[in-house]
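Quick entry between incubations.
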Amino acid sequence: QQQVKQSPQSLIVQKGGISIINCAYENTAFDYFPWYQQFPGKGPALLIAIRPDVSEKKEGRFTISFNKSAKQFSLHIMDSQPGDSATYFCAARRGVGSARQLTFGSGTQLTVLP
Amino acid sequence: EADIYQTPRYLVIGTGKKITLECSQTMGHDKMYWYQQDPGMELHLIHYSYGVNSTEKGDLSSESTVSRIRTEHFPLTLESARPSHTSQYLCASIPASNTEAFFGQGTRLTVV
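Done. Structure below.
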C-alpha cells in the first residue's frame, strides 16, 4: 500500500515555466514533509521541507504548498531552468521517537527544455 | 556535502556470488537505511537500523541481510546474487532530529 502518492510520473516544462508536482497522503500521523532532488548518478538530496502547521514555505524559486485538510502538498518550481532537470521525490515522516522514518513518493522525472 | 559513502559505485557480478555493499557515514547518525531504487525511480525501504546491534526489515521484502556492529558502518549482504537483485541500492542516514535524510551516491548492481 503506497502511503504517499506522487504525480505526475514525468513532467516536461519549457524554460521559464512553472513546474508543479503533487503529493497526497492518508496517514495523519505524518508530521514532516520534505522534498528531495536527485540528479542522475547521485543520491537524493534534501531540497525543501515543510511542517503541517504551515501552509506554505518558499526558498528561492522553490515553494511548498501544504493543505492539511485535503492531506495534499505540492512543490512549485518558478522560472524553471534546464539545471532543474532531475527526479523529485516527496516524502513524509511518521512515528514517534526512534520509530520515525521517511516514506517516499514514487518520484517525478522533470525535464526543463532550453 | 553529506559525509556518507557507498562502495562500490558499480558492480557487475555473476549469479550465485556472495556480495557485500558497503555504507559508511562519519556524522555519528544512529539511524541508517537501505533503499532499493527501481529502474522507474521509486524508492523502497528494505532495511533500517536505529543503532548498534539494531536492524529491522523494511517495507519491501528483500533476500539481503544487514549488520550494524559499529555506528558508522551499515553493510548489506547478498549471500547468493540473482539477476532479480539487479537494481540500484541507496544507503541513507538520519540525525536524531529526524529532519533530513543524507543519501550516499548509490551502488548500481547488475547480476548476470
